[in-house]
């Protein structure tokens, strides 16, 4: 099964090493509810009471006892209930009340009829209500606790809170809550050829893309990104930049300079400031990914971490997404589940050489005859534009093979990071 070239780690082994080597590296803090969206919860939260806290009406209409209506066919109007203003009167058998959506249903009532199915009549100085159409006992009554029952664990420590979670927390009266502080991640790009977008570039120069995609992905997950800019291929400047990054962040992520070229200084500098844990993973793109520990420690005595993304823009995205991001999320306190692959048929044939696990950018092709996965043209590790049409990766195992049209392959739909 494992066909990795010597000294290469398989993808699964690399992920396993990264996750086993890293634990939560941040403290907790208390935040107000509106600030908790996209933050990682630092405690379990269970429901202190039922929601809704009382039976209430789902319609504007009339509330009564179903048995009373069966007995008489018409009911006497004896009061009203509005949201926030329950019925205050004396209940009488054979009675009904006018009720608005959200108002408490009195204990003696079990049924609500919407006002469109009711007629009020005046008779003998009484207001009576007659109901038409078929009706069922308990209709339009929202039961106490039907949304949330007291004691239910609603959220778990390590859960990332989404917008609707904020509403659920409000519904149980939470005004502030403990979350993990954002993990501080410093980013830098290496390469003499790199220029900042918005500035002039000359022959042989390109704009830095990796720092921008990296920053966008990390910010999306709520990390505190410390931008250390573009660093030229000069070992002393690279070392100084790493030292500055280390004084500000828990993790430093660089791009470029991790291959075997004469200007690839990143690994050399890391070996002075720390130690390399592994270099090279049998994946395509993204082979020269590097992971290490700096000698510098955080306030808890943990060595700060280094992740070196390859310079090719696609390799940098794939390694950030598949190797760095799960690790950073774990360090930030988040509980993450393994990625869920889907088995789907190919829309066109595909083949690969043995050696590395491959991540093929692909789109989802939905037609009347079903859903198929279309591997896209332009799979080179410098062709970033393919990402804009992709909705996920076809993942091809390290063994070489070919797959025919309609043959099933593993497909990984893009998550929040890339969609
Ligand atoms: N003789 C070999 N050459 C290469 C190998 C190899 O095994 N033997 N591996 C190749 C693979 S695979 C990759 S991936 C790259 C990785 O190289 P580096 O991480 O050292 O990256 P650089 O050489 O600095 O740059 C590679 C490529 O990417 C462009 N680049 C770099 N940074 C950025 C950036 N921030 N934004 C946009 N583009 C960037 C750079 O200009 C180069 O074109 O090495 C292969 N070579
Ligand atoms: O990682 Mo490199 O991308 O295989 O080009």
From TrEMBL:
This is Molybdopterin molybdenumtransferase. Keywords: Magnesium, Metal-binding, Molybdenum, Molybdenum cofactor biosynthesis, Transferase. Belongs to the MoeA family. Its cofactor is Mg(2+). It comes from Pseudoalteromonas fenneropenaei. It catalyses: adenylyl-molybdopterin + molybdate = Mo-molybdopterin + AMP + H(+). Residues 186-330 form the MoaB/Mog domain. InterPro entries: MoaB/Mog-like_dom_sf, MoaB/Mog_dom, MoeA-like, MoeA_C_domain_IV, MoeA_C_domain_IV_sf, MoeA_linker/N, MoeA_linker/N_sf. Pathway: Cofactor biosynthesis; molybdopterin biosynthesis. The gene is glp. It comes from the Bacteria. Gene3D superfamilies: MoaB/Mog-like domain (3.40.980.10), MoeA, C-terminal, domain IV (2.40.340.10), Molybdopterin biosynthesis moea protein, domain 2 (3.90.105.10), Molybdopterin biosynthesis moea protein, domain 3 (2.170.190.11). Its EC number is 2.10.1.1.
């Amino acid at each position: 099964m494992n066909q990795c070239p010597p000294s290469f780690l398989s993808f699964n082994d690399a992920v396993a090493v990264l996750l086993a080597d890293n634990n939560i590296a941040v403290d907790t803090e208390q935040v107000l509810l509106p600030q908790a969206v996209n933050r990682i919860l630092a405690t379990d939260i269970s429901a202190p009471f039922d929601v809704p806290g009382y039976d209430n009406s789902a319609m504007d209409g009339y509330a009564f006892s179903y048995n009373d209506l069966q007995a008489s066919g018409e009911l006497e109007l004896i009061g009203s209930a509005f949201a926030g203003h329950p019925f205050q009167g004396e209940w009488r058998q054979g009675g009904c009340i006018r009720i608005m959506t959200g108002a408490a249903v009195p204990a003696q009532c079990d049924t609500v009829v919407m006002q469109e199915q009711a007629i009020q009549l005046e008779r003998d100085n009484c207001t009576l209500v007659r109901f038409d159409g078929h009706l069922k006992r308990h209709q339009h009554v929202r039961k106490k606790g039907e949304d949330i029952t007291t004691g239910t664990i609603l959220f778990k420590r390590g859960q990332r809170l989404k917008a609707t979670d904020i509403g659920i927390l409000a519904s149980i009266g939470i005004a502030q809550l403990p979350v993990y502080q954002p993990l501080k991640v410093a980013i830098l790009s290496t390469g003499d050829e790199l220029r900042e977008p918005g500035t002039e570039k000359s022959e042989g120069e390109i704009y830095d893309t990796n720092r921008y995609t990296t920053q966008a992905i990390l910010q999306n997950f709520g990390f505190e990104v410390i931008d250390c800019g573009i660093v030229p291929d000069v070992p002393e400047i690279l070392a100084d930049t790493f030292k500055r990054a280390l004084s500000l962040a828990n993790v430093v992520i660089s791009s470029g300079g991790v291959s075997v070229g004469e200007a690839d200084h990143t690994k050399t500098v890391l070996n002075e400031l720390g130690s390399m844990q592994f270099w090279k993973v049998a994946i395509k793109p993204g082979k020269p990914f590097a992971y290490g520990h700096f000698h510098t420690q955080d306030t808890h005595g943990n060595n700060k971490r280094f992740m070196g993304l390859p310079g090719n823009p696609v390799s940098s995205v794939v390694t950030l997404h598949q190797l760095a991001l799960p690790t950073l999320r774990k360090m930030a306190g988040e509980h993450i589940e393994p990625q869920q692959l889907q088995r789907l048929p190919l829309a066109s044939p595909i083949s690969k050489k043995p050696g590395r696990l491959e991540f093929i950018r692909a789109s989802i092709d939905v037609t009347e005859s079903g859903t198929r996965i279309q591997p896209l043209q332009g799979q080179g590790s410098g062709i970033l534009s393919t990402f804009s049409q992709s909705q996920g990766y076809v993942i091809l195992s390290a063994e070489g093979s070919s797959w025919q049209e309609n043959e099933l392959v593993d497909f990984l739909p893009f998550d929040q990071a890339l969609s």
